[in-house]
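To illustrate the input format used throughout this study, we show a single complete record. The first block contains the structure-token representation of the backbone; no residue identities are included at this stage. The design step must infer an amino acid for every position from geometry alone.
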């Protein structure tokens, strides 16, 4: 878009730029320019500094606030250093003098367009990443997983520290990513570290960084992940494996937002959100002096329990179908679905490895399958040997007088008494909330 009140100059520039293959809009004042920016998809603006209804320098600031991916090149008849400096501060791509710099316009325009295209590609990639790690991509309609998603959505909008609890393979990092991408820090870094993967010395350096000369192999300064995640989120998986000596340094970050690098003498300030995860019982670890009590309470601001796959078996068909689609594309297999018996065998398995185990089994089945549907013959032997008929017979043996029926009726009565409050119902029944959800699933109580 060309913004200039000199019609002859505007026409000349339009002709030159159009010959280079660009589509060009033109206007004579800032009011019209703002309207074009709202209606049209404009990549670059060539704008005069002095216009009848205002200054191009001020226009840059207003336009960049509303259209950050549009680049603006200012043109002036009189070189003015203060104006040029202010224009660049306001976000102008460049500031050139009319006449003297005519030969610079096309190369400058080309660079501006390249920058815009790069910004658009980056934005598209960020959108893809955001979609991949959004709450919408967490599969499952069971009460347990929907409850966990609901809690995660509520805490995502805050800066609160989150503690994710659950068995290995239940999707703790997926939840951590979704919480990060669902909050105000989503444009900043998400850094993840498994605390069980390093020795104490390496873990300290990975998290907090070090100064050159701090130890034999420290030949130069290194930023730790906590500094790399400044402004964003640091996800510490298997936090229960962190050595007690390092727990005090993490506690300091949570309390004061600063830390000291290995070998440094002064502290470094950071603004970082901590999301931690573990499959351990941290309260038990505290009681046995393997985890600091003060750190536990700092981490335990907002806790989310992620259910085991065996407690949300109704979600298995959807998860299996998703993994089949992913791996059939990778292996170029022409798979259209999952055999009914295949799904039944999956549903009756205990899944001690949870979603990660299911993912691996579906990948194996996709590689082995030669037909169009995944079949039982491509499951590992322990899954093939499940007697589905015996399981179905046992499920249909419930009668109006057995213990399960009595339990179902009692749970329904207590739920009615609490008006559907599941936390209060679990307390009255003297069972855990996870156990209650499992029974609600098992007895199909809505």
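Output of the design step:
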């Amino acid at each position: 878009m060309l913004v200039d009140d000199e019609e002859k100059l505007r026409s000349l520039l339009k002709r030159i730029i159009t010959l280079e293959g660009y589509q060009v809009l033109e206007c004579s004042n800032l009011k019209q320019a703002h309207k074009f920016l709202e209606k049209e998809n404009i990549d670059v603006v060539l704008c005069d500094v002095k216009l009848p209804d205002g200054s191009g320098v001020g226009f840059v600031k207003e336009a960049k606030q509303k259209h950050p991916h549009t680049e603006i090149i200012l043109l002036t008849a009189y070189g003015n250093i203060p104006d040029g400096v202010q224009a660049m501060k306001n976000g102008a791509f460049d500031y050139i003098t009319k006449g003297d710099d005519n030969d610079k316009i096309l190369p400058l325009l080309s660079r501006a367009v390249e920058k815009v295209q790069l910004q658009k590609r980056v934005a598209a990639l960020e959108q893809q990443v955001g979609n991949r790690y959004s709450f919408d991509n967490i599969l499952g309609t069971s009460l347990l997983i929907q409850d966990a998603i609901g809690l995660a959505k509520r805490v995502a909008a805050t800066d609160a520290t989150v503690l994710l609890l659950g068995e290995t393979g239940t999707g703790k990092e997926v939840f951590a990513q979704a919480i990060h991408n669902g909050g105000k820090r989503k444009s900043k870094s998400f850094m993840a570290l498994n605390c069980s993967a390093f020795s104490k010395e390496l873990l300290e350096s990975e998290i907090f960084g070090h100064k050159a000369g701090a130890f034999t192999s420290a030949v130069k300064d290194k930023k730790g992940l906590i500094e790399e995640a400044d402004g964003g989120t640091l996800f510490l998986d298997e936090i229960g494996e962190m050595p007690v000596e390092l727990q005090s340094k993490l506690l300091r970050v949570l309390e004061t937002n600063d830390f000291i690098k290995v070998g440094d003498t002064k502290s470094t300030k950071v603004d970082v959100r901590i999301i931690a995860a573990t499959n351990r019982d941290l309260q038990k670890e505290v009681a046995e002096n393997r985890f600091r009590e003060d750190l536990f309470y700092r981490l335990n601001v907002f806790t989310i329990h992620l259910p085991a796959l065996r407690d949300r078996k109704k979600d298995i068909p959807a998860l299996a179908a998703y993994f089949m689609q992913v791996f059939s594309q990778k292996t170029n297999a022409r798979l259209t679905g999952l055999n009914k018996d295949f799904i039944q065998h999956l549903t009756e398995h205990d899944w001690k490895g949870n979603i990660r185990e299911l993912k691996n089994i579906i990948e194996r089945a996709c590689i082995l399958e030669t037909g169009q549907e995944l079949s039982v013959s491509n499951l590992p032997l322990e899954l093939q040997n499940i007697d589905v008929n015996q399981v179905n017979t046992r499920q249909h043996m419930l009668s109006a007088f057995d213990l399960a029926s009595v339990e179902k009726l009692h749970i329904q009565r207590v739920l009615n008494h609490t008006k559907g409050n599941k936390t209060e119902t679990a307390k009255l029944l003297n069972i855990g909330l996870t156990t209650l959800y499992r029974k609600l699933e098992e007895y199909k109580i809505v």
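Structural context for interpreting the output: The domain at 133-307 is CATH 3.40.50.300 (Rossmann fold). The longest helix spans residues 105-132.
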